[in-house]
Amino acid sequence: MPSTCSTQRSSIYAPRLCRLLEVSDLTPQEKLFRLQLEDGSVLNHQPGQFVQVSIPGLTEAPISVASSPSRNGYFELGVRKAGSLTGAMHLLQPGATIGIRGPFGRPFQIDALRKRHLILLAGGCGLAPLRSLIQYCQDYPEQFGTIDILYGARSPQDLLFKDDLLQWRLSACFSCTYTVDNDPADSCYDGETGLITRLLPKLQIAPADTCAVVVGPPPMYRPVIEALHDKGLPSDRIMLSLERNMRCGIGKCGHCTIEHLYCCSDGPIFWLNEVEHLRGAL
Ligand SMILES: Cc1cc2nc3c(=O)[nH]c(=O)nc-3n(C[C@H](O)[C@H](O)[C@H](O)COP(=O)(O)OP(=O)(O)OC[C@H]3O[C@@H](n4cnc5c(N)ncnc54)[C@H](O)[C@@H]3O)c2cc1C
Ligand code: FES
Predict the structure, then answer these.
(1) Residue 115 lies in a domain
(2) Which of 48, 62, 234, 254 has the fewest Cβ atoms surrounding its Cβ within 10 A?
């Protein structure tokens, strides 16, 4: 097994080269990249962490790791084409190399999730980081209670990880429900229609035994949190991911602050009770 500690230390400032093993389309705007570190070492990330991706001549961008550390030999990034770096990534073919720094950030607090009923709730691109945790739960089912996956996207064509959604629906590990805001009349979509908050009242929750993990676009947080509170779930049992513009990724430059917190190193994963009182957090 390669040394992970020394590898991580030396890579905080210097990008490490990764080879692109596979690239596949998730939607017209999002692709999945399967990567391997060139030096053969393991990324050694935890679900919820991100890497700073670079291509020579372009700036870096933070991208969450979308696969679980329990899937050996590679790691995956689900990337939306948003601007210069991600646009360039979308042009890459298998065999190409990119740079990464990291993994960085506070991961999902898996110890606090063990033996609990889990509600794993994602909106849009939020399914990418959550997929890392979902795969982890799938690989270690004995560590967790029952698991409800709830996912919302804008339309059937915007649903990410469609093969995974199908597999999770069929898996004994999970109950998996997805919904879209709008379902065009001519689509063969077979899931639910309406906002993701519509799925929550149907869930059976024993608040004392339940934790929720929420990852999605900013407008999703307040209504989802309200619905979880209505089900009796307190803020110290709701974990969420907060994304901000980032530069260094390691708590040095101040680009990602929410009041006194650095999103890159104190987060991106927080308990709701740590951030709900901070101005601009949600
Ligand atoms: C912790 C973290 C994890 C992320 N994980 C993923 C992921 O798994 N997949 C993915 O596709 N994207 C992810 N993002 C968002 C991604 O980093 C941005 O879209 C990034 O700006 C793209 O870089 P670019 O050079 O292609 O775009 P740019 O040319 O830099 O800009 C594109 C547009 O996106 C805006 N933007 C910049 N940063 C962010 C941000 N953090 N959130 C929203 N908009 C932003 C810019 O203001 C600009 O309008 C993550 C962001 C953070 C902070
Ligand atoms: S990105 Fe530099 S301090 Fe967080």
Answers:
(1) yes
(2) 254
Domain check: are 67 and 188 in the same one?
no
pLDDT digits (tens, 9 = 90+) for 199-222: 999 899 999 999 999 999 999 999
Nearest ligand to the CA atom of 131: 1
User: Does residue 279 sit within a domain?
Assistant: no
pTM of the predicted model as reported, rounded to 2 decimal places = 0.93
What CATH number is attached to the domain comprising 90? 2.40.30.10
Residue 63 near ligand 1, beta carbon < 6 Å: yes
DSSP per residue, 234-280 = -GGGEEEE-----SSSSSSS-TTEETTEETTTT-BEEEHHHHTTSTT
Ligand nearest to the CA of 242: 1
| Nearest-atom index, ligand 2, CA of 262 | 4
Nearest protein Cα to ligand 2, atom 3: 251
Q: Which domain holds residue 76?
A: 4-104
d(Cα 13, Cα 41) in Å, to the nearest integer?
A: 17
Q: Who's near 91: CB < 8 A, 6+ residues apart? A: none
Testing ligand 2's pocket by substitution, the residue of 12, 242, 253 carrying the most ligand atoms inside 8 A of its CB is 253
Q: Does residue 137 lie in a domain region?
A: yes
Statement to judge: residues 34 and 10 lie in one domain: yes
* pLDDT of residue 11 exceeding 60: no
How much distance in Å is there from the Cα of 64 to the middle of ligand 1? 10
